[in-house]
């Protein structure tokens, strides 16, 4: 009692006397809403834990966290804010505003002068080009251009497509129909009339190259006109802006005074930029949040309502449901969790203030952003040196004389025509090049040749009487069509026609015509600038070192700074905005400082970070919960969904017309099915909202069954509802509101099953954490720790040392839980004397498996029982013969309530099921002391307690290293490591493998152990040790321990995890080892194994397999007996009671191991094609064991498709059995290895079961 008071006082002080009763939650409108509310509590608390974890290990940035909570895109918010000097920006804004307001109005038009100076500056950049263009010699380029342009456009070869088409019809079209016949006959007069012109064109083809040489001389010449093009680009703005540029002459006199007034402000470019950056970035932070609809929830997936949900965590931890169902009324552990989250709790109140400040910024931000004065004034001001400004001021008074000399051009130029002509010259260059290539192809084709073929063809064509009937002319036509020479000529004409068409597509003739019109503009462009003095003026400006670009910036700046001065006199919003930003920044820095100074150091030591729910689990739960909320909205509108689904056929016919790609009938059926699914979901929620987290979380699995509708729901609002509302048919029009409502809901869930599955899995992980955390209750501290605490209290230094003592108790709390839940801590469990199986006889190993604890319970010896538990006997170890029970089951069966209570208080798991798939509490309801036993179970309902572990450390290790006697390679790495290890740890090395706690096997380069009985059967037999309590180690453990030289390195890290056989890998070694170490129900319990032909197998292998099977708890027929056809167990009436394998529901209760299926068929054909029997070879048996699948639905809670619901009946009719397909013989390689000749063996010595 005293101990509990002291501990409660301590935890109360740690919690700051802050516990308050939680306000009752308002009733939910439906069971689904209630489930969502409760899952939201879990989501928020879990998210808070993940955030606290991230803050503790500094993996989570506070700025990113705040960005999410305030709906700002990651990286666009507080990472900006912390870099801004808001105080400097505010003071600078006030100072600049004051100076700008004091400026007198300028007599200059700043904007216009800035534009004039820009024109002048742009031309100044091209002064060297202007000089080069003025003196350029373009005579040769112009001569070649004019030569090309002088070519008569009509002499460009024309198309011969008409002739080609007629020839093609005549020679290629088949006599198929009246229409085809007519086309062939019609082509004859065309050819008779048009072949003469074709001959002229083709015979003149060789002369085309000579005729077109003048055009081809212009190839690659257009680039010579580039300088003229650049000249035009400079001349055009000069001509267009001359009057404006000339006005600068008078303005330069006043510009000096303007610069004197504005340069002092212009020099503050760094301050101006700083002000602009602070205001624009601050505006961006605030405005992004108000417009961002797709903000990430990667860090805060549990906080759907963002800051509001952050505040809710404190009340969540005090809510009745969380305290009762999650914390199982374990107030002490709950207080530890609250202490762990204390930094998050402090931060949450600061976040609320940040949120309020941030929200108040949005109206003023929108107001400032709409005016945008600061952006206009301060954007990208140049940082100009004082020397440059001084030069500019000096040159301003001198440059007026330069511009005085400028004169207007005397020539009128149409610059549109100039640009067109330059473009035409470039295209003509390209066209000339293409034409040259095509003309050469036509010449090489040599269609006309010496003219003989053409003339012969022409003569034969003209002989045909085109007006005669087909019967008369067909013979002549067919004779010509059969002439291969004529056909080749027609093909060449077709090819030439294609080339002629490509020449036409170059547009050469059009280019010659259009370019000729305005060539004079190009020839005269060099004279345009004569007598304008432009080049002289630009050189004068250059000599005076006049920076027109800087002058333009200053003029523009002068206009802007005066506008800002006027605006700033009435601007209160910007200063207020900056004050609020400064407040926001200070709050942010306060949060960071608070976290740095008050990081939960004690609490982080109390909870193992590796055991906390990770961010991914929180995200998965948040995503699933968000979808569940969407489903609940659909459920809330179920009446509307029902109305829409009940719409008449004409309504859905109209929907079909509107959405052509949607099957309206399917839509109707999907809506009705969704209503049924939602009703089922509500019913499920109603049955589970009062249960624990894992039961409630199963709602996600249920929700994954809702596929919804496949149509995009937004289409149901527009165009469906919109169109229905305009219908003249009243029934159709009345349906519009329902479909409009459907359009606002999320209806398609077919692609979200994985999201619901992920949420379901996250619930399991989160429940495991909470179940483990809220397990120790008030029973974790020892008397010694209380005495230490009391001594400190009596010494009068309680307040000074309370933090250290709290840390001690919290550390003890978590260490006890870590030992209880971490399988690594129990990996040597079965090697200790307290957990050794006490075997009555060597032949009953598989039938009698008890540790001393089991015997003490059976003998009802409380003193021995308590000593076993206190010394660390495994309170969850299964014992038995044909049936297996935990100590808790046995104590219930024996009717021992005091035994039961002591077991539970010391970590016995009340959720373990025995070999009959019964829980201890179920068994308690069937025994004599039912009421007493059930009272004990109810007393500790929902609580978990740590168990004690026996001491077993490296000093207890007994290591045996595998040695191949044939291996004499003393230089191998394994040999060297083994030898050195044996010397260094001589006291721990044993000679017999049977004495070992650890055996070492050489692994391959991938870290796995490979077994091949064809190479080394002694090594192959090491397989048996994977199914014993021995720890099988990689040889790399030797090397690592040698390197340490004092201690064994952690054996868990070097335990064999994977074995390979016949190119197949099995990564189940650790799973198997844990199963055996924790004395769980043997893997082959419930199985009978028949060893067929084992008398003919080598004795070593036979014994190896028999011993291995005995270890695994099955019943082995060692005499080689086989199943009997007339065995009464095989009768169909016995199906319900017939036993099966405990761990698997996808195989039968009989395993037959045989090296020859062929000989087995001869003896027992009825065992084939029957799900009662599994037939394997010796090697397949080993692979089957290493698969180590546990999938029985009574263990996993989920029935797979492979589950056998009913045993096949055994066919006793020989005639029908003979019709079955005989298995293909696959003799095991065992024959080749051991020289066994099974082919001559008839199996007569096998004794059949009667």
Automatic annotation (TrEMBL):
ANK repeats: 883-915
Classification via SUPFAM superfamilies: Ankyrin repeat (SSF48403), BRCT domain (SSF52113)
Keywords in alphabetical order: ANK repeat, Membrane, Signal, Transmembrane, Transmembrane helix
InterPro entries: Ankyrin_repeat-containing, Ankyrin_rpt, Ankyrin_rpt-contain_sf, BRCT_dom_sf, WSN
Every Domain of unknown function WSN domain range: 30-99
TM segment ranges: 786-811
Annotated signal peptide: 1-19
Protein name: Domain of unknown function WSN domain-containing protein
The organism of origin for this protein: Caenorhabditis elegans
Biological classification of the source: Eukaryota, Metazoa, Ecdysozoa, Nematoda, Chromadorea
């Amino acid at each position: 009692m005293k101990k509990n008071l002291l501990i409660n006082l301590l935890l109360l002080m740690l919690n700051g006397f802050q516990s308050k009763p939680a306000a009752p939650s308002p009733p939910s409108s439906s069971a689904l809403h209630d489930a969502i509310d409760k899952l939201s509590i879990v989501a928020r608390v879990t998210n808070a834990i993940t955030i606290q974890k991230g803050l503790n290990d500094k993996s989570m940035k506070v700025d990113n966290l705040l960005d999410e909570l305030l709906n700002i895109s990651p990286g666009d918010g507080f990472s900006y804010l912390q870099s801004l000097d808001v105080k400097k920006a505010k003071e600078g804004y006030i100072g600049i505003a004051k100076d700008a307001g004091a400026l007198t109005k300028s007599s200059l038009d700043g904007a216009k002068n800035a534009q004039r100076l820009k024109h002048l500056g742009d031309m100044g950049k091209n002064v060297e080009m202007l000089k080069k263009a003025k003196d350029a010699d373009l005579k040769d380029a112009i001569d070649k251009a004019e030569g090309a342009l002088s070519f008569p456009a009509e002499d460009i070869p024309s198309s011969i497509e008409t002739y080609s088409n007629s020839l093609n019809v005549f020679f290629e079209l088949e006599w198929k129909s009246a229409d085809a016949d007519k086309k062939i006959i019609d082509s004859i007069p065309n050819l008779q009339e048009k072949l003469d012109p074709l001959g002229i064109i083709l015979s003149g083809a060789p002369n085309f190259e000579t005729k077109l040489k003048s055009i081809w001389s212009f190839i690659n010449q257009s680039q010579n006109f580039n300088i003229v093009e650049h000249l035009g680009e400079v001349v055009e703005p000069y001509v267009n802006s001359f009057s404006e540029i000339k006005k600068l002459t008078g303005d330069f006199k006043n510009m000096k005074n303007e610069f004197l007034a504005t340069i002092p402000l212009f020099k503050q470019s760094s301050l101006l930029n700083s002000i602009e950056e602070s205001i624009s970035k601050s505006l961006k932070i605030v405005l992004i949040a108000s417009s961002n609809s797709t903000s990430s929830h990667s860090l805060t997936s549990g906080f759907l309502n963002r800051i509001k949900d952050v505040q809710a965590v404190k009340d969540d931890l005090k809510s009745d449901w969380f305290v009762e169902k999650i914390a199982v009324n374990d107030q002490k552990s709950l207080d530890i969790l609250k202490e762990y989250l204390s930094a998050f709790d402090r931060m949450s109140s600061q976040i609320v203030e940040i949120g309020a400040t941030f929200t108040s910024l949005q109206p003023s931000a929108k107001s400032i952003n709409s005016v945008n004065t600061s952006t206009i004034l301060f954007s990208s001001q140049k940082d100009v040196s004082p020397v440059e400004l001084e030069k500019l001021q000096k040159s301003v008074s001198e440059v007026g004389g330069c511009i005085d000399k400028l004169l207007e051009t005397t020539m009128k130029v149409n610059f549109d025509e100039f640009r067109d002509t330059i473009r035409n010259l470039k295209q003509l260059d390209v066209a000339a090049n293409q034409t040259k290539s095509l003309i050469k192809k036509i010449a090489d084709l040599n269609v006309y040749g010496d003219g003989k073929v053409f003339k012969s063809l022409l003569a034969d064509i003209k002989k045909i009487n085109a007006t005669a009937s087909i019967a008369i002319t067909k013979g002549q036509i067919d004779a010509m069509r059969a002439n291969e020479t004529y056909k080749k000529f027609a093909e060449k004409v077709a090819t030439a026609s294609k080339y002629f068409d490509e020449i036409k597509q170059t547009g050469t003739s059009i280019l010659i015509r259009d370019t000729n019109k305005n060539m004079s503009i190009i020839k005269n462009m060099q004279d345009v600038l004569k007598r304008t003095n432009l080049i002289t003026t630009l050189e004068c400006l250059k000599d005076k070192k006049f920076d027109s670009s800087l002058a333009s910036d200053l003029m523009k700046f002068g206009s802007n700074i005066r506008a800002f001065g006027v605006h700033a006199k009435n601007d209160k919003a910007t200063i207020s905005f900056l004050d609020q930003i400064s407040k926001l920044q200070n709050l942010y820095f306060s949060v960071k400082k608070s976290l740095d100074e008050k990081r939960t150091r004690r609490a982080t030591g109390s909870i193992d970070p590796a055991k906390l729910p990770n961010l991914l689990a929180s995200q998965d739960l948040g995503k699933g919960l968000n979808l569940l909320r969407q489903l609940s909205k659909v459920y809330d509108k179920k009446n509307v969904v029902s109305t829409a689904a009940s719409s008449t056929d004409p309504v859905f016919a109209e929907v079909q017309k509107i959405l052509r790609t949607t099957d309206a009938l399917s839509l109707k059926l999907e809506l009705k099915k969704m209503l049924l699914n939602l009703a089922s979901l509500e019913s499920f929620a109603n049955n589970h909202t009062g249960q624990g987290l894992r039961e409630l979380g199963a709602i996600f699995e249920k929700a994954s069954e809702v596929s919804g509708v496949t149509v995009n729901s937004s289409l149901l609002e527009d165009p469906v509802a919109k169109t229905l509302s305009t219908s003249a048919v009243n029934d159709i029009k009345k349906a519009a509101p329902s479909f409009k409502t459907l359009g606002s809901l999320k209806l398609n869930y077919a692609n979200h099953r994985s999201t619901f599955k992920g949420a379901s899995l996250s619930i399991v992980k989160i429940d495991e954490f909470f179940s483990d955390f809220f397990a120790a209750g008030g029973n974790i501290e020892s008397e010694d720790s209380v005495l230490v605490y009391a001594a400190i209290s009596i010494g009068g230094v309680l307040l000074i040392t309370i933090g250290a003592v709290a840390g001690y108790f919290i550390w003890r709390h978590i260490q006890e839980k870590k030992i209880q839940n971490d399988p690594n801590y129990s990996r040597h469990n079965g090697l200790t004397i307290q957990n050794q199986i006490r075997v009555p006889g060597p032949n009953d190993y598989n039938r009698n498996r008890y540790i001393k604890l089991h015997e003490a319970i059976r003998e009802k010896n409380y003193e021995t029982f308590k000593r076993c538990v206190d010394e660390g006997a495994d309170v969850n170890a299964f014992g038995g013969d044909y049936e297996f029970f935990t100590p808790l089951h046995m104590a219930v069966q024996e009717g021992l309530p005091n035994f039961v209570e002591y077991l539970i208080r010391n970590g016995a798991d009340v959720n373990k099921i025995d070999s009959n798939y019964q829980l201890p509490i179920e068994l308690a309801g069937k025994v004599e002391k039912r009421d007493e036993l059930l009272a004990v179970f109810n007393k500790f309902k929902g609580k978990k307690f740590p168990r004690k572990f026996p001491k077993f450390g490296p000093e207890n290790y007994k290591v045996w290293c595998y040695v191949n006697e044939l291996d004499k390679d003393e230089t191998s790495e394994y040999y060297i490591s083994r030898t050195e290890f044996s010397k260094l740890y001589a006291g721990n090395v044993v000679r017999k493998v049977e004495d070992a706690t650890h055996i070492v096997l050489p692994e391959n380069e991938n870290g796995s152990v490979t077994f091949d009985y064809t190479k080394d059967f002694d090594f192959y037999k090491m397989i048996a040790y994977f199914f014993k309590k021995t720890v099988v180690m990689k040889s790399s453990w030797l090397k690592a321990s040698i390197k340490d030289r004092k201690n064994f390195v952690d054996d868990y890290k070097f335990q064999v995890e994977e074995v390979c056989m016949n190119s197949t890998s099995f990564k189940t070694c650790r799973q198997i080892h844990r199963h055996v170490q924790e004395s769980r129900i043997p893997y082959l319990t419930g199985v009978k194994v028949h060893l067929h032909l084992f008398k003919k197998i080598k004795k070593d292998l036979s014994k190896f397999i028999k011993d291995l099977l005995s270890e695994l708890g099955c019943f082995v027929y060692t005499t080689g007996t086989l199943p009997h056809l007339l065995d009464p167990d095989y009768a169909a009436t016995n199906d319900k009671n017939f036993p099966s394998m405990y761990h698997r529901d996808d195989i039968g209760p009989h395993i037959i191991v045989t090296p020859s299926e062929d000989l087995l068929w001869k003896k027992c054909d009825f065992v084939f094609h029957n799900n009662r029997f599994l037939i394997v070879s010796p090697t397949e048996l080993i692979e089957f064991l290493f698969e180590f699948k546990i999938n029985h639905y009574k263990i996993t809670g989920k029935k797979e498709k492979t589950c056998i619901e009913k045993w096949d009946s055994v066919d006793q009719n020989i005639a029908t059995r003979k019709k079955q397909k005989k298995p293909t013989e696959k003799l095991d390689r065992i024959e080749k290895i051991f020289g066994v000749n099974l082919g001559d063996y008839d199996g007569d010595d096998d004794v059949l079961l009667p």
